[in-house]
Amino acid sequence: MEIQWSLVIFAAFICWGAGTYVAAVAFRGLLGASERIMRPAFVLSAVAVVVGAVASMTHLGHLDRIFGVLSNPASGIFVEGLSSAVLVVVAAAYLVAAGRKASSGVLRALAVVGVVPALVVVFAVGSSYLMVARPAWDVPALPIASVTAALSMGAVTVLAIDAFTARGARDAAGEERAASRMGVATLALIGIQAVAVAAYAASVATAPYQEASRSAARMLAGDMAPLFWLAVVVLGVAVPFAATLAQRRGLALAASGEAVARSRAAVTLGVAALCMVVAVIAFRVIMFSLGSSIIDFEFTL
User: What is the mean pLDDT of the chain?
Assistant: First the structure.
């Protein structure tokens, strides 16, 4: 199938923005991350979602088509558009409330509300491609991989934000403990993402109506193999995993007085986050390339 670049960019940036939002809220609420990560994380989240939404609109082409899609609540595009818009509005509301020194309870409530549309949109980005006519898409591993990619990419991004903004922290020891917990959670999410990618490959290999154009062999050892192994596996899993390990090493060195180690870890994490965006783009390119349809046997002689 021809690659739909607008939808590829849409998926990558939506997953990046929504995943960053969820990771920031989870790290703050569950792992004790500093409040200082929230504003930059929400700004990046809103910008990434808007970029993705604009890319999606270019796929539709004419303005009347956009209104046509949004008038059909049953469509996957409607769900993606609505949840993306709600996420941006909630993130903007949080930033305004934070700027006006709202209470911690109000800020916490706003942040939690945005988690729902964030998770909905990343699941919809994968589930909207579940089509019986395209066996390499019609697998549960596809929406799962969309969610795990968003969460792992968001975790690495928030970890980078935390490292970049750590200088001058009031409770350095407490924040280092929180950063350590965040690193462990990020490693776990990257591991889950690796399992999801493997599950997608296995699903393609066992999908019905096997044919060379949509086979797992094409992805693992054929013309799509360099993109799969170098971009999806190396850039999407190995690099962020190594960067997160470097973050933990940087924390240990920072505790002994080598603050420059943490700064280097911050840069490494930032690069790793960008690598993961490239990996999501590569995964979508592979997905579209494997998206050939089956023959409609009902109408053949």
Answer: 88
